[in-house]
Amino acid sequence: MIDNQAHSVKAYLAGVNLDDPNFDYSMTELANLAEANNFTVVGSSQQKAENIVASSYLGKGKVAEIKDLAQGLGASVLIVNDELTPVQIRNLEHMTKLRVIDRTELILEIFSSRARTKQAKLQVQLARLQYELPRLHPSENNLDQQHGSGGSTGGGFANRGAGESKLEMNRRTIGKQISAIKHELKEISGQEEIKAARRNQSQLPKVALVGYTNAGKSTTMNGLLKAFGAGNEDKQVMAKDMLFATLDTSVRRIDLDGFSFILSDTVGFVSKLPHKLVDSFKATLQEAKDADLLINVVDAADPNMNQMIKTTLEVLDEIGVKDLPMITAYNKADLTDRNYPQIEGGDLLYSAVDSASIQALAKLITTRLFSNYQITGLRLPLTAGKDLAYLHQHSRVLKEDYQADGIEVSARLSPQDRARFSAYQI
Ligand SMILES: Nc1nc2c(ncn2[C@@H]2O[C@H](COP(=O)(O)OP(=O)(O)OP(=O)(O)O)[C@@H](O)[C@H]2O)c(=O)[nH]1
Ligand SMILES: [Mg+2]
């Protein structure tokens, strides 16, 4: 565990640049992640190279240079821009005399400190244990370390045998914890009420807010809820100026004029999001996979906007979201000098805290989701209670009139539902 809550610890950053055009941006991100973890970033170095050095990530000369610079600036921690092997971390710590933290551990740590619900906590714990498992080392008393009570016990040759059996025990314990958590997560997602809620939700079109962390997804959800919350206006989600404020998925029904859909808000993205983390957040990200329309919320006031868009598209690809219709929603226009709200092509420049913007977003969603829906008149037999219930769940029923020979209904129907009820059309 990274323990820097009591006072801000000074950290030095380092990264290997393998001729990556986005390298500078990834270092900016690393600094933001470090600061989100309460570190004070005092300096940063990069090494241009063709390969990562297998034993120590950075080359020897660079390590010596960083050691001097970091010490001169009073840093006690070195944060590196990639996920390192256990050997690389140990060697770097040995060579620099600094505590070395890699990008994955940094992100895991932020997720740990933000997790509030049981599901989020279990998902983070799972990712953390999976990260730690291959990093157990015979010379380290890892489980003690995990509970914050000790560091390396520095196993020499003499206690190697004891160390190895301890290692086996630690591996077994972590392995058991991993299966227990997987089991518990499965149970949570299998709970009947959640399943029932999903079934109900699946009747209406689904829209998912996705995007880079801190772009304004939750604020956008709150704006739509406030204006069109269908009686759930007070079910606002948490929006906050920090990385990864949201770690769960919230799902709400939105009733626009004549149209309804299900809106979800979920965890934000960052580049090089650790695979294990993406993997353990599968359930949370499911909503985005099931969506009929994605709203990619972008911070239009951030100079790195284009890289953030690229990052979001990469993460979506990684979680298997492909070829879904998408609106790019350029948020925080109030922090730019441009006029808003403004619809351009299929996209929107807006501010999530501006009500005219929220109306424009709603209109755009309507156009994209419901353009081929039509108001349809039906006459159902009086015995068609099931059909009527279906219509209420799947569409917006605008009129329902009981007459002697049947129920006259007017509803806004998708092409599929128009075909389904064609026999009853009037
Ligand atoms: N000025 C301005 N600030 C905004 C706007 N939209 C959101 N914010 C602020 O941006 C910060 C992040 O907003 P959130 O809605 O929490 O962002 P998010 O995308 O849900 O972030 P994560 O859940 O952390 O990934 C908050 O401080 C919001 O108040 C906007 O249109 N204008
Ligand atoms: Mg959020």
Automatic annotation (TrEMBL):
One of its GO terms (cellular component) is cytoplasm. Residues 148-158 have a biased composition (Gly residues). It is found in: Cytoplasm. SUPFAM superfamilies: P-loop containing nucleoside triphosphate hydrolases. The keyword Mitochondrion does not apply. Its main location: cytoplasm. GTP binds at residues 211-218, 244-248, 265-268, 331-334. The keyword GTP-binding applies. Its cofactor is Mg(2+). It comes from the Bacteria. Mg(2+) binds at S218, T246. Residues 205-373 form the Hflx-type G domain. Gene3D superfamilies: 6.10.250.2860, GTPase HflX, N-terminal domain (3.40.50.11060), P-loop containing nucleotide triphosphate hydrolases (3.40.50.300). It holds the Pfam family GTP-bdg_N. Keywords: Cytoplasm, GTP-binding, Magnesium, Metal-binding, Nucleotide-binding. GO terms for molecular function: GTP binding; GTPase activity; metal ion binding; ribosome binding. Residues 138-168 are annotated as: Disordered. Belongs to the TRAFAC class OBG-HflX-like GTPase superfamily. HflX GTPase family. GTPase that associates with the 50S ribosomal subunit and may have a role during protein synthesis or ribosome biogenesis. Monomer. Associates with the 50S ribosomal subunit. This is GTPase HflX. It comes from Lactobacillus delbrueckii subsp. bulgaricus.
